[in-house]
Amino acid sequence: MTDTLFFYLSKLAWALLSPGNLIIMLFIVGTLLLLLKLQRIARWLLVTNTLLAGLVLSYPVGDWIIQPLEQRFSQPAQLPAQIDGIIILGGGEDLKRSLSWNVAELGLGGDRYIAAKKLAHIYPFAPVIFSGGSGSIQLQNTGAEGHIAQQIFNDLGLLPSRLILESESRNTYENFRNLQPLLKPDGTYLLITSAFHMPRSVGIARKQGVNVIPYPVDYRSNSAELRQIDFDFYDHLKALEPGWREWIGLSVYFFSGKTASWLPKPDIAHSETATEPQRPRSNPFEGL
Fold first, then answer.
1. Do the Cβ atoms of 190 and 212 come closer than 8 Å?
2. Inter-axis angle of helices 233-255 and 39-58, to 10 degrees?
3. Transmembrane segments in this chain: where (predicted)?
4. Closest by alpha carbon to 69, among 256, 247, 252, 236?
5. Residues near 201 by Cβ (< 8 Å), separated by ≥ 6?
6. pLDDT band at 4 (very low <50, low <70, confident <90, very high)
7. CA distance 252 to 248
8. In a domain, 98, yes or no
9. Count of other CB atoms within 10 angstroms of residue 32
C-alpha cells in the first residue's frame, strides 16, 4: 500500500467512523428507513442512536477513552542535561482559518508551541524542528503549514536560524520518515505533541530509529472528580473524537507495520528522567 493510498483511505474511513459524523449519519439512515416504511428497523436504529447521542450530550464519556492514552507518557520530572533538538509535530495550527484570514491561527493543539518556546529557552542552542503538512484532502500542496509555524515561532521570539521546518508530511508516519534525513542518527530529541497522540508518535519514532524523550501537552480529559452531567455536546466531542481516532490509529499503524507495538510504553532507558504516568487532580492549583 503506497503512502498516498494509505492517506486517502484513512481520511475516508475516519469520515465514516468519526463519532460525531456517525451519530448524524445514523439519524439520516433512520429517517430514510422511515420514509421507506421500514418502521421496525428504523425505530430500533433511531431509539438506539438517540440514547447514544443523549449519553454523549449529557456526560463526558470520551474521558474514559482518551485518558488511558494521556496517562501513558508523562513530561520528564528532570530534563536531560543535553539534547540534539526539539521536535514539535504539527497539528496545533488552524490551517483553514489561517488561510481564510491570512493570519497565523492556533487550534486546540496550540499548547505545542508554548511548550516548544519553553524548551527552547531551557536549551538555547538546540534547534527547534517542526514537522507537519496538511492532513486535509482538500488543502494539499498549499505550502502554508511551514509558513504558519514560522510566523508563530517568530511571534514567540525564536530566531529563524534556530528553526528547521518540514511541511510535506500528511500524517505521523510521514512526520518521522521526512525528519530522518534532518536528524542525527544517534541524536536525542525532545518530542512535543498532544498527550493523547504521544503513544502512536513514540511508536513510530522507535520503529524508524529516532530516539525521542516524550514531552506531552494539550490534555483533553477531566479528572473523575470534575466529570459531571453538563449537556455540552461540543466540549465532550473534544475528548471523544481524538481519543477514538487514536485507538483506531494505533491499531491500523500496528497491523500495517508502522509501529513495533500496539500501545508503546515508556522506555526504561529514560527511567531516570521519566515520572509515573500523570493523573489529573481534582484541584490543579492545590499547593500553589
1. yes
2. 100
3. 12-36, 43-62
4. 247
5. 89, 172, 175, 191, 193, 212, 214
6. confident
7. 6
8. yes
9. 11
pTM of the model: 0.87
CA separation, residue 182 to residues 84, 158, 192, 210 (Å) = 11, 19, 17, 11
- Give the C-alpha separation, 143 to 234, whole Å: 30
Q: 91 lies in which domain range?
A: 78-219
- Asked whether residue 30 is assigned to any structural domain, the reply reads yes
For the chain, the C-alpha Rg in angstroms (whole number) is 20
Report how many domains make up the chain.
Answer: 2
C-alpha cell at 285: 492549583
What the block records as the C-alpha cell of 2 is: 503506497
Q: Please report, as a single letter, which amino acid is at residue 212.
A: V
Q: Are residues 125 and 189 in the same domain?
A: yes
Distance CA 53, CA 273 (A): 43
Does residue 208 share a domain with residue 86?
A: yes
**Alpha-carbon gap, residue 236 to 221, rounded angstroms:** 9
For β-strands 163-166 and 211-217, DSSP reports them as unpaired
Per residue in 182-239, pLDDT tens?
A: 999 899 999 999 999 999 999 999 999 999 999 999 999 999 888 999 999 999 999 9
Contact 38, 202 (CB under 8 A): no
| Cell of residue 73, nine digits | 507518557
Do 110 and 40 share a structural domain? no
Say how far apart CA 11 and CA 136 lie, in whole Å. Answer: 8
172-179 and 233-255 helices cross at what angle (nearest 10)?
60
Quote the CA–CA distance of 25 and 278 in Å, as a whole number: 36
Q: What cell numbers appear for 27 in the block? A: 439519524
Identify the domain boundary among 176, 191, 219. Answer: 219
168 and 133 in contact (C-beta within 8 Å)?
yes
Three-state DSSP at 193 gives: strand
CA distance 123 to 117: 10
Cell of 269: 532507558
Residue 91 and residue 207 in one domain: yes
